[in-house]
Design a protein that fits this description.
Length: 129
């Protein structure tokens, strides 16, 4: 019997590749990178960087809830940005989804992201059974 559980919710975008929205192994939940896709249309939100970042965190929150947790359970967040000039903006948006003590975090500048997105966010949570 596998010790991992695949997490899926219709409240977040479906996978656009060979991966799951999240995998739970014990108390750890590994949430795949979320780009600013609207789960209803599977299209990128067509607006500002802030709106795109908010969509990423809403998608993360939906997957976290499907796994039996919330963003309060995040222990590590990784943010990928195609333009590091958006670093301050993503900090402001992130602050609206997390409380102190904040999770560990990395922000990484990348050349490109799927579907031409400007931002992608992934997270690791620790949730109780």
């Amino acid at each position: 019997m596998s010790k991992r559980q695949i997490i899926h919710t219709e409240r977040a975008p479906g996978a656009i590749g060979a991966y799951s929205q999240a995998v739970k192994a014990g108390d750890a939940v590994y949430i795949s990178g979320q780009i600013p896709l609207d789960p209803a249309t599977m299209e990128l939100v067509d607006s500002s960087f802030d709106a795109a970042a908010h969509q990423c965190f809403r998608n993360l929150a939906a997957v976290a809830e499907a796994a039996g947790g919330s963003l309060d359970d995040a222990v590590k967040v990784t943010i990928f940005l195609t333009d590091l000039a958006n670093f301050a903006a993503v900090n402001e948006v992130m602050a609206g989804y997390f409380r102190e003590p904040y999770p560990a975090r990395a922000a990484v500048g990348v050349a490109a992201l799927p579907k031409g997105a400007a931002v992608e966010v992934e997270a690791v949570l620790m949730v109780g059974d």
